[in-house]
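Sanity check

After download, print the first record. It should look like this:
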Amino acid sequence: MSASNAVFVGMDLGTFKTSVASSTGYRDVMQTAVGWPKDHVARTLLGRDLVFGKDIVEHRLALDVVRPFEKGALKYVDGKAAGLDDKTVKKHADATRLVVEYAVKMVHREPGRPVFGVIGVPSRANTLNKKFILDAVDGIFESVAIVSEPFTIAYGMNRLTDALVIDIGAGTIDICPLFGTYPSEKDQVTLSMGGDLVDEEFEKKLKAKYPQAQVSRNMVREIKEKFGFVNDVSEQAVVQLPVNGKPTNFDITEPLKAACNTIVTPIVNAVREMIGQFDPEFQSRLRQNIILGGGGSQLKGLDRVIESSLKDYGGAKVTRVGDASYAGAVGALKLAMNMPSEGWTQLKGAKGRKAVAA
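Expected structure tokens:
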């Protein structure tokens, strides 16, 4: 198949946010969610049948919002394991397709040009999960490649040799070693936790400490993104929250740190175990080349905490990605533009040809 006239798209299809970058120079980040107006009144006021991006937050009370990959559902586990019935799985599949379709449409490509896309998914996403995504994007892309999210981050940074990538998303945490080749599934680890779990724990601890405070999950997420930390700090995190409608100051330092630390021990334990499984001469190289990616990488002090936890193992050097929002998408785009023809999966919707196995 020829990609000479194609528009290339790199996409990090995240649990909470999707980032996209294209060969046309366009890039954007949006919620991995679709909003349907709840009734005819909402439909009339909104003036549309579907709502995407920042408008979902602004109009969320008037919308039925679906996050198709919430808690890693369908991207890492199957529908049954996620507790979803067939009708809900169908709606999540529709939402996935609509999010991807909207993102690709925003590229403003010239009519008639095929679109080739590389999509990042969790390290241990199985064949069933990949087929779910392939089916969802069929007809949107001419051809597609589904790859490990940590690999796209490393590819974009030219750090494909003797590196260990920790990709902290909203629903999953991927830990992936790289040795100059595409990582095998058995070498990678996916933890079924991430930013969503931190949000849940923070909201729970905040309400336990300050039951009078009024707070929504969206407010909790914004506070975490602004103040989230895991190291010892002297300053306090103080925010204004309403109490019966009246703005009141609250010191949220303690419950926030406790919630953020929820994911630290599992990460540290997984990294120690993974490094210990490799040839001794490579262990030091991995420890000295750890990359933190994903939205969770922005928790203040996380890099230093991981380094400290590995002191007894010979020390470590942890580097954050330069731009957590776009690192995966930019890496996926770079991979797409360098992809050999045999690396693509031809989709059924492209000229009616049958898809080949990924």
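If your output differs, re-run the checksum step. Summary of this record's structure: Residues 7-34+70-155+326-346 form a domain with the Nucleotidyltransferase; domain 5 fold (CATH 3.30.420.40).
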